[in-house]
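Hey, can you fold this one?
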Amino acid sequence: MKLTEEQLNRYRRDGYIIVPDIFPADQMDAALGACDKITYGSSFDSWKAAGAKESVGDGISSKAQHGRAQFPSGERALDRLIENDDYLDIFEQLLGTSQLHYCNAHLFVRAGPNDKRHEPEAWQGYHIDHDTNTFLPPWVGPGHFDYVNSGVFLHDVEEDGAPMQIIPGSHIPTARYLSQWARDGIANARGGINDIRKIPGISEKRVSSKAKKGAAVFYSSYTLHAAIGFKNKSVQRAFWTMSIARADNQSWTRYSVPYHYGEREFFIPFWKDASPRVRSLFGWPQPGHPYYTKETLELLLLSFPGMDLQPYRERLGL
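Sure. Predicted structure:
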């Protein structure tokens, strides 16, 4: 998928963009079913009918009750979302490079019946997500050291379904003035804003990120956003999220470390079936790289039984 110049300019100006129809409806239905299974142990409607007694984890700061909300989840309907070439093309265009690096992916679910993931006042809770995946604070201008967050809409999200609130264009002043805001006591160095009303020309610009299932929102890690409460407490808001950075920033911008033994049991089966393009997000050399020799290909097949190594063999003339 190739974004139009108007879409690219809008992202540069606003710090976010919503792109419709990236994923087909039937794929979203299957992904939502898997998400519900992990989150509730049943469908959302069944969980709600049973009294909605459990609190819901967001997939990153707390654990899911009935499965793994981190990527890879082990649920094929969710884990294969990363294999969408149109989706990855958009990251490349927004970051201005084909050399991408995976930061993290996880489920982010909020359930209307018992949701508490929002502040009581509309001017509270605004923040940037930048320090989720990096230990370095924002640089003076976006487009260099920030990364791109995304949320895939597994179902329709309307105004009454707690859509994420975004402040268009906030990525630019945040990058420039966060240190000043911190000195003035308006913000902290991590990008949390105490009272958005104290930043002139910002608070009145906020918009709701509503979309139909199959769409995705993409936003800079410098863009201010916040959660709001559900007007309709009988619905949920389920996202599959992923964050991607430029590969040349990977020394300091990363979150998930899939090489630790506790993670390998999930990543080894995933990598076995992944495409070379997706493997490269995690640091695998591209086909044609000198790493791939007859000997290393034999070892890879022993390490990942059943892996299709043909794309790597073709470049070697094997």
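Strands lie at 16-19, 100-111, 148-153, 165-166, 207-208, 216-220, 225-226, 236-246. Let me know if you want another pass with a different chain boundary.
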